[in-house]
Design goal:
Elements lengths: L1 E5 L4 H5 L7 H15 L3 E5 L7 E5 L2 E5 L13 H14 L3 E5 L3 H12 L3 E5 L21 H9 L2 E4 L2 H11 L4 E2 L20 E5 L8 H10 L4 E5 L7 H12 L4 E5 L7 H5 L3 E4 L8 H8 L4 E3 L7 H4 L3 E3 L3 H13 L1 H18 L2 H16 L3
Parallel strand pairs: 1-2, 1-5, 2-4, 5-6, 6-7, 7-8, 9-10, 9-12, 10-11, 12-13, 13-14
Antiparallel strand pairs: 3-4
Length: 372
């Protein structure tokens, strides 16, 4: 099949400079590479360069029609619409795939209908199937293009059953569950001993991820070492610098800033726990990356479909005070922590294996193209 994947900032992953991007972009890049390895004709459209450049990277045709410069509305500029249409016509894909909340969703959905092509939209967060689909006031007008795209696409891929239920409630549209894919680390794991306890935080350094709560934890546990890893988004530079300055003022915190995704596994392997303080998510890639390296998760606010609790992959704390107690429990109980680490690895092997997940994508695309 001829497949076109669109992801605004994913070029950074291809270029190895992914400071500002997250899980949505990573998922699309991994999917594209696996589809190309299976001999599909894969094109990838991103919006990080302004010279309409074309490259072939890892067998994938990459296009950069224009630079959004952090503004989603730039898709709607006449000159940019022309550039994008020109590239999409050239690609002439059978199936288009796009992930994350954006006006681009509406644009591609309309284009696919116009050209009698198939469009698969992939959900990246719970708000994408709830708040971002609601237009209750003039402040929500920016969601019109996005809502149109989700409503009229051929299939909505959801990460969790909860997202499927939210989509059905808000838009009366059925979603399809295809879990996030994860390439398992090939290196063998060695359990940390109790003398090298480390607490890890990973994510984009933005307010909704609540990195300030992680720094509060570091002050509560001065005897432990805390690692903080995260890039600097352009639109949140001041917040990033504030967190960096605060972290550097705490003796037991090592602020590592941006770390290349290819180098991340060693930090997961050398950590005792991954702590998540985010206020809202879809299905965080950092969970899969921690679990793939036998590292349990202590999550403050989020437990996708209850798997952390039900599968014993860590602890869903729900409150900051309880998180403090949960961290104490897991660090004192080496046996429990290791059992959860093994459960975590087995879970991602069974449920998120990249080969199995991409096979599901292939089956879906073949069904849509063949009129199933």
């Amino acid at each position: 099949m001829k497949i076109c994947i669109l992801s605004e900032y994913a070029y950074s992953f291809f270029a190895g400079k992914s400071k500002e991007v997250g899980g949505a972009e990573l998922q699309m890049v991994v999917l594209a590479k696996e589809l190309a390895d299976r001999s599909h004709d894969v094109s990838f459209v991103t919006f990080e360069k302004s010279n309409s450049s074309f490259e072939i990277i890892d067998g994938i045709k990459t296009y950069n029609p224009f630079n959004t410069k952090g503004s989603g509305y730039s898709y709607l500029y006449p000159q940019n619409i022309y550039k994008l249409l020109k590239i999409l016509n050239k690609i002439n894909a059978d199936v288009f795939i796009q992930r994350a909340t954006s006006p681009l969703t509406g644009f591609i959905s309309f284009y696919a209908k116009l050209k009698n092509k198939k469009f698969i939209y992939s959900v990246s967060s719970e708000i994408g199937v709830s708040g971002n689909l609601k237009i209750n006031s003039i402040k929500n007008l920016k969601n019109i293009f996005y809502k149109f795209g989700v409503k009229h696409c051929d299939c909505v891929i959801c990460q969790t059953n909860r997202q499927i239920n939210l989509l059905n409630q808000v838009l009366n549209k059925k979603g399809k569950l295809i879990k996030n894919l994860y390439p398992l680390p090939k290196k063998e794991f060695e359990h940390n001993d109790a003398s090298r306890l480390k607490i890890l935080w990973v994510g984009r350094l933005v307010k909704e991820k609540r990195p300030d709560l992680f720094l509060r934890l570091a002050k509560i546990f001065p005897e432990l070492k805390f690692w903080m890893i995260g890039g600097c988004p352009k639109l949140d530079y001041e917040f990033y610098k504030k967190i960096e300055q605060s972290a550097n003022g705490i003796n037991n915190v090592e602020f590592l800033g941006y770390i290349s995704h290819n180098e991340m596994d060693k930090y997961y392997r050398e950590s005792s726990l991954l702590v998540s303080t985010s206020s809202g998510e879809g299905f965080p890639n950092i969970f899969l990356e921690a679990w793939g390296n036998y590292t349990p998760v202590v999550s403050l606010n989020f437990d996708p479909d209850g798997i952390i609790s039900n599968q014993k992959l860590g602890i869903h704390s729900k409150t900051f005070e309880q998180m403090i107690d949960d961290i104490k429990t897991l660090l004192k109980n080496d046996k429990l922590r290791k059992e959860m680490g093994i459960n975590s690895r087995r879970y991602v092997e069974k449920e998120h294996d990249v080969k199995k997940i991409v096979t599901k994508y292939e089956g879906l695309m073949e069904s849509l193209v063949n009129g199933g």
